[in-house]
Specification:
Helix content of chain A: 25-40%
Radius of gyration of chain A: 25 Å
Largest interface: A-B, 44 and 31 residues
Structural class of chain B: mainly alpha
CATH class of the largest domain in chain A: Alpha Beta
Helix content of chain B: over 70%
CATH topology of the largest domain in chain A: Rossmann fold
Distance between the termini of chain B: 46 Å
CATH architecture of chain B: Orthogonal Bundle
Structural class of chain A: alpha/beta
Number of strands of chain B: 2
Shape of chain B: globular
Shape of chain A: globular
Number of strands of chain A: 21
Number of domains of chain B: 1
Strand content of chain B: under 5%
Oligomer: heterodimer
Largest sheet of chain B: 2 strands, antiparallel
Number of helices of chain B: 12
CATH architecture of the largest domain in chain A: 3-Layer(aba) Sandwich
Distance between the termini of chain A: 49 Å
CATH superfamily of the largest domain in chain A: P-loop containing nucleotide triphosphate hydrolases
Radius of gyration of chain B: 20 Å
Order of helices and strands of chain B: HHHHHEHHHHEHHH
Strand content of chain A: 15-25%
């Protein structure tokens, strides 16, 4: 066996209070496709960023081609032949393919002369190598997504990449396009490149990978070989494992429902959604209901359409098909103002960007959605605002220097509590929480969980969107799973984490409830 | 209730030092009649600065104010021949300004076009239409309309007090009306404001409408000061107004700034030229000192701005 192209041992990485990688070991041999598997938040993206030098690791060793690397920078990673093909190709749409390739591969000195003929020849030869069926003179904006990916791969090959990272390359590809891509991957493998292949589609792992490593909670759980001998054409057999084992490794054993919430059966339906869809956000045929005093969890892979559904319900991208009922009355929601007036609150996913307004104070942020109620006639009433803010600072335990402190000075968990306080102040009937504990520390997380539970005890209906299965399992009365823009399963009772993961990956089994 | 934040305090201090220097070295600067005249001629600039500051607060810009100012002046001038009373002149100027502001607001807030391009286009359109329509001919105003039919000193006081009154009301509203809060929220983060149920479009539209209205009022206060109207009036007014807003601490990225600070900022900028004259400096220094003050203000903002690091999130 030749020495490994890439060897990682005990890689650790933390962001503030959040541990993203907690001792990951991984290696890549020449001429192999090594699949990297893991649920949302398992640490795949962070690991890639460590390998490409975008994030320095906090601990652990890394060696490329047998040489230990002390502190990898993105420029070093490139010169060592590490290249990453992202899901969304980062090309310049207004330039041609040849110009894009030239920009990537040629010197960036502003005063060099562009040698057009050489550039065209290089681009043409690289495009041939990846089997591209389009000319280098094509404008990138005329290319389809997979064609753009081919350009990215061509750039990587042109840069002499020996280690190629492909992050969900097939996510937006059709079947024939996928086959084309697999052909290119095979070609690269035979030329001795190593490919780190990330995908949520288990069948692809068996289709293309030589080895697979499963990440969970920032740790590498297992690494196993696959073999092609004796298997059907085009697929491989796991050495002592199958798809079910992979799912099991991804979710782990400990993730069973920790504290079972009391079901709110018998309570009236608060929010009913029937056949809901919105063309531009790619969401279709959503049917479910949330009862008063109930938490319905909504999970699925990133990009499955969960946030898009929330944005429809909050009037940000109004629905164009289907029906929404609140307490049995059909409603149309075409703007956030209407949603708020109807009693719907939405705690958005990206807190620092959208959940709070950093220039304003804690009190001003909390009163933001209740201006009409708190300030009749549009006259600010500082006393009322102060009282309101103090109430929620006390109730949610927000740690702040005072009501007039700028919200930018608070910690992440406390900012999130301010964002929640805003919606509690609005006294909603339905509250949509989108990743409410993303990026907050463990202490703040359990506090936020406690507050969510006490809210539903008061009769609020909560739609909880989360990628964290433990969070979903701990809080939800019922759990919906989304995949490819629609609700594929709705679990009453107590599903296991493995059942949820199967549904999210689209591997439903008999006994799993279809939607 | 007035909280002196750093910028208000700094601008007021610089102004105080400048005036103190003038009081010692050029006491003539403070002789009552010239001082009142200077304040009178600064009053329209203060109002236009208010308008632009409101637009900047929403993360936009309006560079058409200078042209709009001229259009409003000319419109009011023509109206004065139909109905030669100060009330009509003021009303026509304000309505014209409002109209111009509403057009900008419609294009920027409703059609979501970039404000720099929209107001550049309206700036050129108003100015060129005026050139075409008026051919550079001055408009003589009826005798009884100058100084709002008051004595000269009375008219001057009326103009200064009107500008101060409008500034006070707006500054009060910025602090005490929910609408003021909405402007700050929208300028600070339009998407976050939208998610909180505040309509960024409505706030932006209102800011442009108010800016136009204030420009119209400013034009009315200006034409009351002279017996005739120059159709080329208001050239580079937008630059002076933006300069005042920047010195007053309005962040071009939106969301920050207090209208009340525009008072010391405008006074500071209009005191520079006379100060240089009184101190015996060559007039060429005038623009250089202006530029230096604006640069200093922008640099102070850059240094003062809290470093907001995007905390990376684990994925």
């Amino acid at each position: 066996m030749t020495s490994a192209l890439l060897q990682l041992v005990g890689i650790k990485k933390t962001f503030g209070a959040v541990t993203a990688l907690n001792g990951v070991s991984f290696d890549l041999r020449p001429g192999e496709v090594h699949a990297l598997l893991g649920g949302n938040g398992a640490g795949k993206s962070t690991l890639i960023k460590v390998i490409t030098g975008a994030h320095p690791s906090d601990a652990g060793t890394m060696a490329v081609g047998g040489h230990p690397i002390a502190r990898l920078t993105p420029a070093m990673a490139r010169s060592l032949g590490i290249a990453c093909i992202y899901q969304q190709p980062a090309l310049f749409p207004d330039l041609t393919v040849t110009e894009n390739i030239g920009l990537r591969l040629e010197s960036t000195s502003p005063f060099r002369r562009v040698r057009h003929r050489e550039r065209r020849r290089l681009a043409a030869s690289l495009l041939r190598q990846v089997g591209a069926g389009f000319s280098g003179e094509t404008g990138v904006h005329d290319l389809s997504m997979p064609q753009q990916q081919l350009v990215e791969i061509a750039c990587a090959i042109g840069a002499g990449a020996k280690i190629l990272i492909m992050d969900e390359p097939t996510a937006s590809l059709t079947q024939p396009e996928q086959e084309l891509l697999f052909g290119v991957v095979d070609h690269l493998r035979r030329n001795g490149s190593g490919i780190i292949y990330i995908s949520h589609r288990l069948e692809e792992i068996f289709r293309i990978a030589d080895r697979v490593t499963v990440l969970r909670d920032g740790e590498s759980v297992v690494t196993r070989d696959l073999t092609r001998t004796g298997s059907a054409e085009g697929t491989a057999i796991g050495q002592g494992f199958d798809e079910a084992d992979l799912i099991h490794w991804m979710v782990g054993r400990h993730l069973e429902r920790t504290s079972v919430a009391i079901p709110a059966a018998g309570a009236p339906d608060r929010l009913t959604v029937h056949g809901l869809g919105c063309e531009i956000s790619g969401v279709h045929d959503i049917t479910f209901a949330v009862r008063a005093g109930e938490i319905v969890g909504l999970t699925g892979l990133v990009g499955a359409g969960r946030t898009e559904l929330a944005r429809i319900l909050f009037g940000l991208t109004p629905a164009d098909t289907g029906e929404i009922r609140l307490d049995g009355i059909p409603v149309t929601i075409s703007s956030p103002e209407e949603a708020i007036a109807l009693g719907i609150g939405y705690l958005p996913e990206d807190r620092r960007r959208h959940g709070i307004i950093l220039d304003l104070s804690v009190a001003q942020n909390i009163s933001m959605s209740v201006h009409t109620r708190l300030f009749p006639g549009g006259w600010l009433r500082p006393d009322a605002e102060q009282t309101l803010a103090e109430h929620y600072i006390h109730r949610l335990g927000i740690k702040t220097a005072g009501t007039s402190a700028e919200v930018a000075t608070l910690s992440g968990g406390n900012q999130q509590k301010v964002a929640m306080a805003r919606w509690l102040a609005a006294n909603p009937r339905v509250l949509i929480l989108d990743e409410p504990t993303q990026g907050v520390d463990v202490g703040a997380k359990s506090e936020i969980h406690r507050h969510i539970r006490s809210l539903v005890d008061q009769g609020l209906a909560v739609l909880l969107i989360s990628s964290e299965l433990p969070e979903i399992l701990a809080l939800s009365h019922r759990i919906g799973v989304m995949r490819s823009g629609t609700l594929t399963a709705l679990f009453e009772g107590h599903p296991s984490a493995a059942q949820l993961m199967r549904a999210a990956l689209g591997n439903l089994e008999p006994g799993d409830p279809p939607c | 209730m007035l909280k002196w934040n750093a910028r208000e305090f700094t601008v007021a201090t610089v102004l105080a030092i400048l005036w103190l220097g003038l009081a010692v070295f050029a006491p003539d600067f403070f002789s009552p009649q010239p001082l009142l005249s200077r304040l009178t001629s600064s009053a329209p600039k203060l109002l236009v600065a208010c308008g632009i500051a409101l637009v900047i607060l929403t993360r936009n810009i309006d560079i058409s104010v200078g042209s709009l100012y001229a259009v409003a002046s000319v419109a009011a001038g023509h109206a004065s021949h139909v109905a030669p009373t100060p009330v009509v002149i003021v009303a026509v100027a304000i309505v014209t300004g409002l109209g111009g502001g509403v057009i900008n607001g419609f294009l920027v807030a409703t059609l979501r076009l970039p404000s720099i391009v929209v107001t550049l286009a309206t700036m050129v359109t108003w100015r060129e239409s005026l050139r075409l329509g008026q051919q550079g001919v001055f408009i003589n105003l009826p005798d009884n309309t100058q100084w709002f039919s008051l004595s000269m000193v009375g008219g001057q006081w009326a103009i200064v007090l009107a500008a101060l009154g409008v500034l006070t009301v707006l500054a009060w509203a910025q602090k005490n009306l929910a609408a003021g809060r909405h402007l700050h929220a929208v300028g600070s983060d339009p998407e976050a404001a939208r998610l909180a149920g505040i309509s960024p479009g409505r706030a932006t539209f209102a800011a442009f409408g108010l800016c136009g209205t204030l420009t119209g009022l400013a034009a009315a206060l200006n034409i009351a000061q002279s017996p005739q109207i120059d159709p080329n009036t208001g050239r580079l007014l937008e630059l002076e107004a933006v300069a005042a807003a920047v010195v007053a601490g309005f962040a071009v990225s939106g969301g920050r700034g207090r209208l009340l600070t525009l008072l010391p900022a405008t006074l500071l900028l209009v005191s520079i030229s006379p100060a240089l004259t009184y101190l015996g400096a060559k007039p060429y220094w005038d623009k250089a000192v202006h530029g230096a003050i604006i640069l200093t203000a922008v640099m102070a903002d850059g240094l003062r701005r809290p470093k907001r690091q995007c905390r990376s999130q684990a994925t």
